Amino acid sequence: MKRRKWTGKEKLQIVLEGMRGTVPLGELCGRHQLSQSQYYQWRAQLLNHGAKVFDRGGPEQAEQRLREEVRQLKTLVGELTVELKKSEDAPW
Fold first, then answer.
1. What b/e sequence results for 8-44 when a residue is b if at least 16 CB atoms lie within 10 Å of its CB, and e otherwise?
2. Average pLDDT value for residue range 28-49
3. Residues 27, 36: contact at Cβ < 8 Å?
4. Which of 1, 45, 53, 83 lies at 20 to 30 Å from 13 by C-alpha?
5. Computed over its alpha carbons, how large is the radius of gyration of the chain?
6. pTM of the full predicted structure?
7. CA–CA gap between residue 65 and residue 81 (Å, rounded)
8. Are 35 and 18 in contact (CB under 8 A)?
9. Neighbouring residues of 55: CB distance < 8 A, sequence distance ≥ 6
10. How far is CA 64 from CA 12, 67, 69, 70, 71, in A?
11. What's the pLDDT at 16?
């Protein structure tokens, strides 16, 4: 049997549908051709890590913070490299 690749959006939609309880879990899993154990794994991941979406502005702001930190570190490395080069060229 060929393994199916699920996007994060698909997984979220399936788990949320299961959590609503409007459809029996067996029917939901059968419709999407996945095992109930897989559903429960996805649900556990959502419940364990879902709060990260709300932490400090969500993933977009976290990525922006990391990009800014990388920019600052690259600037610092550049400045230190220039200082090192100057100290090597100094006639001591």
1. eeebeebbebbeeeeeeeeebbeebebeeeebeebbe
2. 95
3. no
4. 1
5. 24
6. 0.59
7. 24
8. no
9. 62
10. 24, 5, 9, 10, 11
11. 96
Locate 65 and state its tokens.
């913070």
Q: Which two tokens stand for residue 47?
A: 């419940």
Read off the pLDDT of residues 55-83 as tens digits, 9 standing for 90 and up: 766 677 778 889 999 999 999 999 999 99
Band (51; pLDDT cuts 50, 70, 90) = confident
- The closest alpha carbon to 17, from 29, 8, 5, 7, belongs to 29
How far apart CA 88 and CA 92 sit, in angstroms, is: 9
Residues 6+ apart with CB under 8 A from 12: 46
Identify the DSSP state of 34: -
